C-alpha cells in the first residue's frame, strides 16, 4: 500500500515537472518562450532566403500578384461576397500547382543549393559517408586565361562555363560533345567565327571541355544593362539557377566578364579572371 502511494506521488511529481518544462519551452501563455523565438527566427531566415532567391527578377512581380489575389480573396470573404469568394477560392485551391509550374527554376535552384550544402558542402553528411567526398582534381586555369586574353584581343566572342558538381547534361545535350583536355589553342579554335562550334557556350568540367555550342537559359532580370547582349544574359541566366561560373568575352568590345550567382563583374584583367576561377574551384578542386 505504501509502495502504491509512493509510486503514485512520484508519477504525479514527474508529470508535473514535465508539464512545467513543456509550458516553459512552448505553451507559456504569459509571453514569448525559447521555442517560439527559435520558430520565429527560422521563419525569418526562410523568408529572407526566398527573397534572396527571387529578388531582381520578374518572380518578385508574380509573387506580388499572388499576394494581391489572396488579399482580394480575404476581402471578399470578410464582406461575404460569395460568388467572388468562390471564384478566387478555386484559383487559390490550385495555387500550389501554379506555384510549382511558374517558379520551377527557382525551386530547382533552391533544392540544388540545399542538397549541395548538406551533401557536397563541408557538412556532417560528407564526413559521415566518406564515399560522398569528391576526389581532388588538378585544374590548370592558365590555358583558359590565355585563351580569353587572345579572344578578347581579337574581339572574338566567347562563353565558357565552369562547373564542379552541378549536373549540366541537359545543356550539354543541346550542343556537341567534345570531351577533350582543356587547351588554349582548342578554345581559340572553337570560338573562331568561322568555326561551326563558335555559337553557344563551352562547358568545362574536371579539366575537360565536355561540350561546345551549348544553349544556355537567358535571364529574365530587368536590371541587366541594355548594352549587354544575349551572350551576357545567357551567362547570368545559367548562374541564377546553377552553382556555376561563366566567363564571357564580348564580341563588340573585347572586354572579359564573369557571371556568378546571378550577378556579373565586367572589364576584368587576366589576373582577376585567374583569381575568380581559382576561388570558385578552390572549394573542391586544386586550381593551378
From TrEMBL:
It is an enzyme of class 2 (transferase). InterPro entries: C-di-AMP_synthase, CdaA, CdaA_N, DisA, DNA_integrity_DisA_N_sf, DNA_integrity_scan_DisA_N. Belongs to the adenylate cyclase family. DacA/CdaA subfamily. One of its GO terms (biological process) is cAMP biosynthetic process. Its EC number is 2.7.7.85. Keywords: ATP-binding, Cell membrane, Membrane, Nucleotide-binding, Nucleotidyltransferase, Transferase, Transmembrane, Transmembrane helix. Probably a homodimer. It catalyses: 2 ATP = 3',3'-c-di-AMP + 2 diphosphate. Residues 104-270 form the DAC domain. PROSITE patterns: DAC. The keyword Transmembrane helix applies. The keyword Transcription does not apply. SUPFAM superfamilies: YojJ-like. Catalyzes the condensation of 2 ATP molecules into cyclic di-AMP (c-di-AMP), a second messenger used to regulate differing processes in different bacteria. GO terms for molecular function: adenylate cyclase activity; ATP binding; diadenylate cyclase activity. This is Diadenylate cyclase. It holds the Pfam family CdaA_N. It comes from the Bacteria. The chain crosses the membrane at residues 34-51, 63-81.
Amino acid at each position: 500500500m505504501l509502495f502504491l502511494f509512493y509510486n503514485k506521488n512520484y508519477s504525479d511529481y514527474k508529470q508535473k515537472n514535465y508539464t512545467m518544462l513543456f509550458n516553459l519551452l512552448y505553451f507559456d501563455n504569459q509571453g514569448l518562450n525559447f521555442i517560439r523565438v527559435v520558430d520565429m527566427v527560422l521563419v525569418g531566415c526562410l523568408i529572407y532566403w526566398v527573397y534572396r532567391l527571387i529578388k531582381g527578377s520578374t518572380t518578385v512581380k508574380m509573387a506580388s500578384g499572388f499576394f494581391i489575389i489572396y488579399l482580394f480573396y480575404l476581402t471578399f470573404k470578410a464582406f461575404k461576397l460569395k460568388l467572388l469568394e468562390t471564384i478566387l477560392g478555386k484559383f487559390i485551391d490550385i495555387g500550389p500547382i501554379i506555384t510549382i509550374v511558374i517558379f520551377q527554376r527557382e525551386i530547382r535552384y533552391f533544392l540544388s543549393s540545399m542538397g549541395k550544402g548538406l551533401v557536397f558542402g563541408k557538412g556532417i553528411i560528407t564526413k559521415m559517408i566518406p564515399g560522398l567526398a569528391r576526389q581532388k582534381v588538378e585544374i590548370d586555369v592558365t590555358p583558359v586565361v590565355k585563351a580569353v586574353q587572345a579572344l578578347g584581343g581579337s574581339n572574338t566572342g566567347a562563353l565558357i562555363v565552369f562547373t564542379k558538381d552541378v549536373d549540366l547534361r541537359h545543356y550539354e545535350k543541346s550542343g556537341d560533345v567534345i570531351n577533350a583536355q582543356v587547351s588554349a589553342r582548342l578554345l581559340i579554335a572553337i570560338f573562331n567565327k568561322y568555326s561551326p562550334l563558335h555559337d553557344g557556350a563551352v562547358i568545362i568540367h574536371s579539366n575537360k571541355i565536355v561540350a561546345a555550342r551549348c544553349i544556355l537559359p537567358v535571364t529574365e532580370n530587368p536590371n541587366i544593362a541594355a548594352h549587354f547582349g544575349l551572350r551576357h544574359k545567357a551567362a547570368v541566366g545559367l548562374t541564377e539557377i546553377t552553382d556555376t561560373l561563366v566567363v564571357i568575352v564580348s564580341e563588340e568590345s573585347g572586354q572579359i566578364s564573369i557571371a556568378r550567382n546571378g550577378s556579373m563583374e565586367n572589364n576584368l584583367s587576366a589576373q582577376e579572371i585567374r583569381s575568380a576561377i581559382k576561388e570558385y574551384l578552390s572549394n573542391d578542386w586544386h586550381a593551378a
